[in-house]
Specification:
Layout: H1 4-14, H2 21-46, H3 69-84, H4 89-109, H5 127-136, H6 142-156, H7 160-170, H8 180-190, H9 195-204
Length: 215
């Protein structure tokens, strides 16, 4: 598991400020505050055991970097404005959109995520948390990502009717153009015989018969 310095450096790099010492210190302070609040809330809720209050044995677990997607995503959404400021606002939105799309693509296409071998940071039980964070975010295209969450969940559970319904919703959203290949690929897996609809979707999202972007 990373140190405070490592997490601060990672976030500074994400907003293209790798040498901004002040930013790194602010990020470390926010992380410490977040964990302190969690500890305080736990103590207020559960109290402190008089026998154990002087000693605490903390188990150390080794985690994969991918296991940290949900808390990293939550932290970045909730603190985006403070981390990025006005100067790097667009870059911070781009980072959030990339984090979302990478993991939603996994579920939508099934190439990395599947029911038998779920990718931890994108499996279906994370969807309620992702939806709630999208709703409280200040993304201008949150409607698109909420529909994509519905589609990804339907793909994950093999709900063919819902897959078709949500892909049809995607055809009305201009943001879908950038990710049309994933949506066509998902439709093709469930409805390979619907050649006419596949052709229409490819034409809508400017894809060739192999689902690659036309030049």
């Amino acid at each position: 598991m990373g140190t405070l310095n490592q997490y601060a450096a990672r976030i500074a790099n994400m907003v293209n400020q790798p040498n901004n010492h002040e930013l790194k210190e602010r990020v470390k302070d926010m992380i410490k505050t977040m964990f302190a609040n969690r500890i305080r809330q736990s103590v207020e809720k559960n109290g402190i055991d008089d026998i154990l209050k002087l000693t605490f044995i903390a188990p150390v677990e080794e985690l994969k970097y991918s296991d940290l997607f949900a808390p990293r995503f939550k932290f970045f959404v909730e603190n985006r404005g403070e981390i990025a400021g006005k100067k790097y606002e667009e870059a911070s939105f781009r980072i959030i959109r990339t984090m979302l799309s990478d993991h939603l693509i996994n579920n939508t296409t099934g190439r990395i995520t599947s029911k038998e071998n779920p990718w931890n940071c994108g499996e279906a039980n994370e969807m309620p948390s992702m939806r709630s964070l999208i709703k409280i975010s200040d993304l201008s295209d949150k409607e698109f990502f909420l529909v994509w969450c519905d589609l990804a969940e339907a793909c994950y559970f093999g709900q063919a009717d819902q897959v078709k319904e949500y892909i049809r919703k995607m055809t009305t959203l201009p943001e879908a153009m950038a990710f049309g290949r994933s949506f066509v690929w998902a439709f093709q897996q469930y409805f390979p015989d619907e050649k006419g609809e596949l052709t229409r979707l490819r034409e809508l999202w400017n894809l060739d018969e192999n689902n690659y972007r036309k030049r």
